[in-house]
Amino acid sequence: DSCSHQCGELLSTCSCQVTCQSLRTCCPDYKEFCLHISPHSGSLMGGKDFEIENTAFNTSSRLKCRFKQKIETSGYVAKDGKAHCISPLLYETGFVPFEVSADDGLTFPYSGTWLSVHHSKVSDGEKSVLVNATKWEYYGTPNTEGNLSLTWKHEVLPATHINIEVWGYEEIGKSYSDNWLAIWKYLYTLAREAPNTGTFSFTPVPAKGNYSTLDFGILRITPSNYSDGQSNVPSVWSSEHALAWHLGEDFRNDPSAWATAKCLEWDRKEEKLPNFLEEIIDCPCTLAQARADTGRFHTDYGCDIEKGSVCTYHPGAVHCVRAIQASPQYAAGQQCCYDATGTQILTQDSTGGSTPDRGHDWGSPPFMKPPRIPGFSHWLYDVISFYYCCLWSDNCQFYMKHRPSSDCRKYRPPRAASAFGDPHFVTFDGLNFTFKGHGEYTFVESDLTFLRVQGRTQQARFPNGSEAQVTGLSAVAMQENNSDVIEVRYSEDLNIEVLLNQMVVNFSEQSWMDLKGLFLHSTVDQTITVMFSSGAGVEIRGSGGFLMLTVLLPEKFMNHTQGLFGVMNGNIEDEYTFKNKTTVSVHANPQQLFEFGADWAVENGTSLFTYDTEFLLNNFFFGEKHKSSFLPVFFPYEDPADPLVKDMILLCDSDPFCRFDVLTTRSLQVGNSTKLSHQNHKWLVENLKSVISCGWLDHPANGRKEGTNYLSGSAIHFICNQGYELTGSKERICQETGAWSGETPSC
Where is the SMB domain (predicted)? Predict the structure, then answer.
């Protein structure tokens, strides 16, 4: 009954699963073999030292750490008896299993998981900083010369002296074939035996030999007792960057001519590659849509309205989003940028426009090979080429030819359904109802992608602590196809907990996680977003002791949903459909609705929830999935003499959900969070309304145009240059039909 080699398994007499601790069913040696580590995450570039917190090794143990059963790195036991491992260079992001050997690699009985993170998403303190990065990336172009310097946290490396190495990234083999491979390789050592003071300055010289042909790379700082380019040793990496500073004399003598030649060579290569533009998702038409469609689009960290809109690559933009999922065949990415009026900016009108990506910046599962390497594939196809054509030379038209903005003519917003308060439901088709069952229910399931979202409701409490005759949402669990299972719940001390395959997830180091079949994100104020690979999105936030849940489904789910959120088909008449496909009228009374809700109780065999406390086991696992003895208040009584009623009317105004919740829980706070949740849902639906786009219009030759908004109701004006006269329409208006009025003008 040992957890040696068995972490995550349920044995016949005891458990090696994460839930065993709260259930007190662990095997005696669970803590010895199932490892807890700190820190638990770091850059995919590797070289980070982490400590094994729960197992003591004797100092004579010869440690080896092995990741994914094949990548071995060195380990060591510190003077305090704590074991340490060094994380490896990986070509993927997400949770990676590792094992530890104490007998120099004969057996690996200890195991745990390491979270590999996109290099741009790790905290700045983990990387060495290129001081004045622009100077590094423009070094050798006019008016850029002198010294370059970098800084790092010297205490991260336990050494008095360090080496600084230059590494280059390349992808070799035939594009989009099985022999296409990604390689980070050591090039040369820039500085040897430099004191580890946390700062270094030098005057760059062109790299020797053929190293200067690599123009995209990274710096690595290691203790100087390791040999050059030795893999997976303690290290601090810089951010990846354009290596202008080490390019050869040919670049320094005429940077613009060198970059122009590179740009033209890239242009020729692009012509031969498959066209990925046809399979990427269209952009949302407005900033409001882009920020509301959280299942398919996420803020681009390079241009974020919530961080002051610092949009270096997109002048004129206030916010950009990226499509979360890479395109199906070519793993390409989409980016969409918007100006202060909320209108999409197109490259056809402005250099600040959004550009799609041959390589998705965040990479895409299963990673490992081009074009799916997180961050670096994107740099190679979409970023360094931008330096060639747009930054180091004046040939941006070549770049924009291959990376034009997508407009929004094919964009279809998702549908939203929400549950909040003592559960009030708004279905995908917009029907409102209240169902206050006590138990675990299917909110939505779909035969299209086997998406399941289940909710647990528990009895609400009055402010004095006694139980009220209503329930509220206390946990939500979800899965699609064979993805990881995510559960969001209130813990017993009313903190929000997120579980990944039954294990509590810690967001203290990373707010974004690439998981199996989904991405997971948590904001500072604990709004949890789950983005499934189908484009379905689930958003959950705590609000007044209950959870508020919103599910967003793309149009392809039409006629493919059932559960408490109804049948998504644009028709509210069939919202109350039972499992056996019978329906009750939309005018059903609360008791009939109660039967409809009870019909959607989940069963233990299909439940996605984690039962890791005695309370949950007794009440929800061994207890009824729908507590038939619990009868809620269907019609709360408004007593004019009740002092609460006056405050309630002031707070709730005409919101029926808010009034209901104040009366049944005797709490204005609960009523207020219900009112806010209801309001949030209405805003979301408003922001997701369809918008008609007529598509981009060009200016006439020998003339210009005024206006860059191509949505329904907007007008574009045309003016001819001096000495030319206009034929055709001087104003064209985008009509509801999606067509422009008038005729194409010419000068």
Answer: 1-38
